[in-house]
Amino acid sequence: MSAWPEVVTAKEENRHEIKLAGAAISKRISEHGLDKNIFTLTNINLLNISDTCLHAIPDEIKNLINLQSLLMFGNKIEVFNENITTLRKLKVLDLSRNELKSIPESLNNMKELTSINFSSNQIEDMPKIGDLPNLIIIDISNNKLKSFLDVESANLPHLTDLKLKSNLIESIPSCIGQKLSSLKNFDISDNQITVVPGEVANISKIKDLNLKGNKLSDKRFMKLVDQCRTKQIMDYIRDHCPKTEQTQQSSKSKTKKGKKEEPHTESVEAELCNSMKILHVSDDVLNVKIVESQVGSVRPYILCCIIKDLNFTDMLFKKFIQMQTRLHDTVCDKRNVATIATHDLNKLPPGDLVYTAKPPSMLSLIPLMRTKPYTGEQLVQQLVAEAEALRKEKKRNVYSGIHKYLYLLEGKAVYACLQDSSGRVISFPPITNADVTKMSSESKAMLIEVTSHSSLGACKMVMDKILQECLMLGIGADSQDGFHALTVQQVKIVDPDGNLKSVYPSRTDCVYDDTNIKVIRMPKK
Hints:
Structural class: alpha/beta
Number of domains: 2
CATH class of the largest domain: Alpha Beta
CATH architecture of the largest domain: 3-Layer(bba) Sandwich
Strand content: 15-25%
CATH topology of the largest domain: Phenylalanyl-tRNA Synthetase, Chain B, domain 3
Shape: globular
Helix content: 10-25%
Number of strands: 23
Number of helices: 10
CATH superfamily of the largest domain: Phenylalanyl-trna Synthetase, Chain B, domain 3
Radius of gyration: 24 Å
């Protein structure tokens, strides 16, 4: 069988991504089987074979040693091929909407994983979770799990999203408060839970807890779960749910009756002197309107905030730019997890921003450090040509600068972009900003934008880190005792009708435990 045209093109153009999805691909697979030439494309870092009749993952998957994203959702796969776990660079694994029944223990070998999606399968058991230090999201919703994940020996320091909706789980382990302390979004709705252990209240960063559709024996609690927000639910758990393990940590987390308790952000030792003041969102602050129908397929997650009262020197500004580059290489994982953009707020016209996506030929901007406008299509072509010229000049196959991120756009029918209130594009993630809002050492207020294709949790993690770095760098006003201070303004993400989607920093964000940072959350005016 000759190689499929998509495979030929990917090889000829040295593409880093290949997508094979839909009815036409399914027909080829049913008639001739999957083209094994796919597994000779050892340079690709994203493979998407979805919504087909594929019933087995070939062993040759192990050949794709540079793979970082494996998307095989919506197929007929019955067995998890253990060769997947040899892909040491894999970060995103999506095998949702298949017919898997079990997952091997060797999943724990995949130390670089940031996102696991096994939702809508037939999974009855999960392996014991071990050391997965980079994992941010686990989604095992709509399966047949009878037991909660075994996290007794787990190391999941960055896990923010755990989705176990619609299983048959009967209990929540008491160790959850200790082992999953970074959780922000926890959905265990539509299971068989009767009692919630008090240790759940120890998850101090929780923002969204969904317990609906369970068989809670406490009828008052059940009514609260159906009608109230997470804060009230967590307060009730803290005060009324029995604790399985009476630890010192859980006893300290109790709320005194009648006292409104903030998350543990404010419980800072007196000697901690660096301070971050977070201003509550107000009507005169810009919103970011997200058009989910456009960005959902390419880069669906965005968070923004504003830093006020900047106090740059030329040296501090140089360090700030170097810090942003370093974060792109580290916590952003070379922009695979998320991308940071910074804008001079005073260069933006009044009004809300719009986060949407456009066909490459319809997106237009003057890129950072350039003087003429380009369409998205023209800019990518220009960057490809520059990258090729640099490669030939330096006689090596390693790209530098923004050229090395071009593969992140391969196969995309539309490009995500952020527009100001006049419709002008100010950001083209994950590639570049517009020159018109470029930061300088004279900037006094800064809009920070973080976008991601993987999760909102990834945006939060990166945003928390950049605010911490900005504070410690000293780009804000100095407090009287000589330590650094930073003033941060909340920004809301809303849908086109103005309905709230998210706000950053929320009360569960910017939690800097065991640091010399004091976070002061200002009340609503």
